Amino acid sequence: MRLLVAALFCIAVTAVHAQNTPVGLWKTIDDHTGRDKSLVRISDAGGVVTGRVEKLLHPTKPNPLCDKCRDDRHGKPITGLSIIDGLRPDGKVWDGGKILDPENGRIYTVRLKLTDGGRKLEVRGYVGPFFRTQTWTRIE
Question: Which of 11, 49, 70, 107 is the most buried (most CB within 10 A)?
Answer without folding.
Answer: 49
